[in-house]
């Protein structure tokens, strides 16, 4: 396995957030922050530096994943952003600048495969494992990792 990822979870459904956290930790990665809204992401500590952000589209306090994505791109420009949503059709063709999407409901095996792929790509791009079917990637990510 590649080195562990520092992961930010932005999800307003507590059960899903807890399930994701347990799954991420079980895979050897670290959850460095969690938020339910754009306001909570903005309030995260200045020294937080996630390498991967898993972001739901529909969030608390009237915010949405697209707004969170914009904030993350400005604050942590090197972080990979992956939307996790049941509303995949709402993701625009350019992914709003995000790097991928995992459809809900997701399987644990699908998330584990996506984490393995993303971890390899972060630490030693491009990943040596094939892209899992559970993860749709953006053109932006394929260019970043020089994939065809």
In short:
The chain contains 5 helices and 6 strands, in the order βαβαβαββαβα. With 148 residues, the protein is α/β, with parallel strands linked by helices.
Structure, described:
- It is built from five helices and six strands; from the N terminus they run βαβαβαββαβα.
- The model has no long low-confidence stretch (mean pLDDT 94).
- The protein has a single domain, classed as 3-Layer(aba) Sandwich (Rossmann fold).
- The protein has helices at 14-26, 38-42, 65-75, 108-123, 139-144, and strands at residues 6-10, 30-35, 52-55, 80-85, 100-103, 135-137.
- It has a six-stranded mixed sheet, sandwiched between helices.
- By secondary structure, the protein is α/β, with parallel strands linked by helices.
- The radius of gyration is 14 Å and the shape is globular.
- The longest helix is centred in the last third of the chain and has 16 residues, at 108-123.
């Amino acid at each position: 396995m590649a080195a562990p990822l520092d992961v930010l979870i932005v999800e307003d459904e507590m059960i899903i957030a807890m399930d994701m956290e347990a799954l991420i930790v079980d895979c050897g990665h670290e959850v460095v922050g969690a938020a339910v809204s754009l306001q909570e992401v903005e309030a995260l500590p200045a020294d937080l530096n996630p390498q991967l952000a898993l972001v739901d589209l529909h969030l608390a306090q009237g915010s949405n994943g697209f707004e969170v994505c914009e904030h993350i791109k400005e604050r942590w420009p090197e972080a990979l952003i992956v939307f996790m949503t049941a509303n995949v059709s709402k993701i625009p063709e350019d992914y709003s600048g995000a790097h991928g999407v995992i459809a809900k409901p997701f399987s644990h095996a699908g998330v584990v495969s996506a984490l393995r792929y993303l971890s390899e790509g972060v630490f030693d791009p491009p990943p040596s494992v094939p892209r899992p079917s559970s993860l749709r990637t953006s053109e932006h990510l394929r260019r970043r990792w020089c994939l065809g």
